[in-house]
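Practice problem 4.
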């Protein structure tokens, strides 16, 4: 099975058939899709300027989508390398029990669904790399009361999400499932209350 880099090379290669290049870009999302496969694809298409169902997009637009995905992947891989090194040091120092950020991180290893968007048409507008930088910054500071990606304060608790965890606080502004460790207990309780009010 081809890895991300070989699929990316194929998507970029002008000697390849355009349909194969598009297919290779879609296959890259099986390796790295921060919003989930469908939402990340929708995001890349809208930012690069071609339709999600366009079978023969402009090659330059296809490469632009690939470059955005590659930049975001390099941001996430750097974070994972730092995370791995930190955990190694902690284990060496006798800290065996991971914290809540570590529990969340275990579910997103490799970057798939790290900023999950349950509705594939609702996702942040900013470049993927910027979204991941904001999310990483939030993971490395004290919890806050708003979405770390768009600073939206309208969080609602949703159940039956199509990703693990199966429930959590969703930002109604940008659509991501906000990682619980980046929110204060008060913000989490507020999201749960909002869910109760909406369903009542």
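Answer key:
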């Amino acid at each position: 099975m081809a890895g991300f880099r070989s699929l990316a090379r194929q998507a970029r290669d002008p000697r390849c058939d355009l349909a194969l290049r598009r297919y290779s870009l879609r296959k890259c999302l099986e390796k790295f899709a921060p919003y989930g496969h469908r939402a990340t694809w929708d995001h890349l298409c809208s930012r690069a300027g071609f339709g999600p169902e366009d079978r023969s997009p402009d090659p330059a637009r296809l490469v632009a989508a690939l470059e955005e995905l590659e930049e975001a992947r390099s941001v996430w891989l750097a974070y994972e390398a730092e995370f791995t090194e930190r955990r190694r040091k902690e284990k060496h120092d006798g800290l065996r029990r991971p914290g809540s950020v570590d529990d969340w991180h275990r579910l997103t290893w490799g970057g798939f669904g790290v900023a999950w968007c349950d509705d594939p048409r609702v996702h942040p507008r900013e470049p993927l790399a910027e979204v991941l930088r904001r999310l990483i910054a939030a993971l490395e500071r004290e919890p806050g009361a708003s979405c770390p990606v768009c600073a939206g304060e309208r969080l609602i608790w949703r159940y039956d999400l199509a990703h693990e965890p199966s429930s959590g606080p969703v930002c109604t502004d940008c659509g991501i499932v906000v990682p619980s460790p980046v929110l204060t207990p008060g913000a989490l309780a507020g999201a749960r209350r909002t869910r109760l009010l909406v369903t009542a």
